[in-house]
Amino acid sequence: MKKVLLSVVCLALAGVFTISCSDKHSNIVQFSLYGTDLNIHFDTSQREAMKDVSKDEVSKCLVWIKASTIETLKDCQRIKQELNLSDWAYVKMLDRFATASLDSTNEAVLLMYDMLTRSGYGAMVSANKGKLNLWYQSDAFVYNAAGILLNGHKYYVYGDSVANEETAMLQKMEGRPIDFHYQGEMKLAQKPTAPRTITSKKDSTFAFTITMNQNLIDYYNEVPLAGDDENFMTRWATLAEYPFEQQVKDSLVTKMKQKVAGMSQLEAVQQILWWVQTGLEFEYDEKVWGYDRAFYPEETLFYPYADSEDRSILLARLVRDVVGIDAALIYYSAGHLTAAVDFSDAVVVGDFLKLEDSRFIICDPSYIGGRVGETIPTMKNSEATIIQVK
Question: What mean pLDDT is predicted for residues 277-282?
Answer without folding.
Answer: 96
